[in-house]
Automatic annotation (TrEMBL):
Taxonomic path: Bacteria, Bacillati, Actinomycetota, Actinomycetes, Micrococcales
Listed EC numbers: 2.7.13.3
SUPFAM superfamilies in UniProt: ATPase domain of HSP90 chaperone/DNA topoisomerase II/histidine kinase
Name of this protein: histidine kinase
Biased composition (Low complexity): 469-488
Source organism (scientific name): Frondihabitans peucedani
InterPro entries tied to this protein: HATPase_C_sf (IPR036890), Sensor_HK_TwoCompSys (IPR050482), Sig_transdc_His_kin_sub3_dim/P (IPR011712)
Entry annotated with the keyword Nucleotide-binding: yes
Transmembrane segments: 27-45, 57-75, 120-139, 146-164, 184-205
Gene Ontology MF term list: kinase activity
Amino acid sequence: MTTETSPMADEKRSLYGSLWRAFPRDVGYLALTGVLALVAGSLYGTAGSMVSGFGDALGSLVLFAILVLAALYLAKQFGRLEILRLGWAREPAPRPVVWRRLTATNRFVRLLEVAADPHYWLYLLYLAVVFPILGGFVVGLIGSVVFGGMAGIAVGIVLLVARADPGSDLWRALTQQPWFFDNLRLFGAVSVVLGLALLALLPLLTRGGVKLMGAVARPLLGGFRSEQLQAEVAGLEVSRSAAVSAEGTALRRLERDIHDGPQQRLIRIQMDLAAASRAVDTDVVRGKALIEEAIQQSRDALEELRALSRGFAPPLLLDRGLAAALDAVVDRSTVATRFTDELPEGVRIPVEIERNAYFIAAELLTNVAKHSGAGRAELILSAPVLGGSRELVVVVTDDGAGGATVSDGHGLAGIEQRLTGLGGTLELRSPAGGPTHVAVRIPVTPPAGEGGAEGEPDGERDPAEVPEADAVPETAPEAAAPTRDSAS
């Protein structure tokens, strides 16, 4: 016969177990809190004695102002330490603080500028008032519970194992209370149980104390919501400017390339055909040569147009997805390139993210072919989940000469500018002598789901939206990611 436990009971046991697992960390935080509260109290006494030691009222006022100014700087450092301690205790971090920029050229005035920043005063309020009182209360309460629990256990043990000595004053006094003397063992057992119960509450109290300290510290040590909104607006403005600049640069470059390349060839073809038309009746050989030259010019113009069209999203990207489009890019590469597709099954990347990732990967492989002198390269495409959100990662490595840098007007600078508009990052490692490692990370917004869209059953998506990998039957989890080698 088997017994089943309810899910609620399992959840309670799991919660209590997690409290005990966090108990050492909570105790460490609260123990240091008690020490810092004592230090803050001693600083009160020291500052008070220093101010009262001045007989001159003006001197006392000047000293008090100096101490307040020093306390503002000290409070800032203490607040940062408290944020680190709360993070170590697994408490959510407060909003980042936007500190006031010190703009004065005079050093003395710069020291006084901190008084205009409200965050300094909030930090001082936390250091001078909130932390000593609240920390002392929490530590004192938990210390009282510990003392009460240990005392209850000790008294209970004494009552359980001690023998009454009728000659002692203690037992003589107890015998005057027959109800207590007759139930001595019972009171001992109750005392032990109460002491154990108090100690059993310790992880709940310590976790509650840490939670209380964090809840009070976050509004005082954190930034204002208005500051966060201003920072977000500034970031969006930078991203928008970068995106507009990147698109404008790309359009100007495309216009210049068309003007200098295919347009000139088409004009040459027009002139050759006109000359051939005039010469066909008088000089057949020359007319035929001009026509052959026009045909070759048309081939060259077609090749240039194909090269320029790579700046637009290819149909393959829209029809079969990013992995298939990059596979085609690898096929065209003049450097032997290995392509590894590590995208999880069923992950759907927004079209704009795929489009930008395609151009970035193509640009990186073009840089490898033009500048690196590499014999082999590798392209890795993945979409890991970090911090609860998914990001698209494109990694390109080569065994070339190295020394790549992000310089204005070059390909990597254009990629970095494009990534700024996408909220992405570029990581470059290219020591002299190689190898070169470039990692591009683009946040996926909204985060990609592991399957169909909300309200859309699996297996009923539009075939045009399903990457080619979705049509492959599911294999064992340990199967290697698909790779593709291209050598020209």
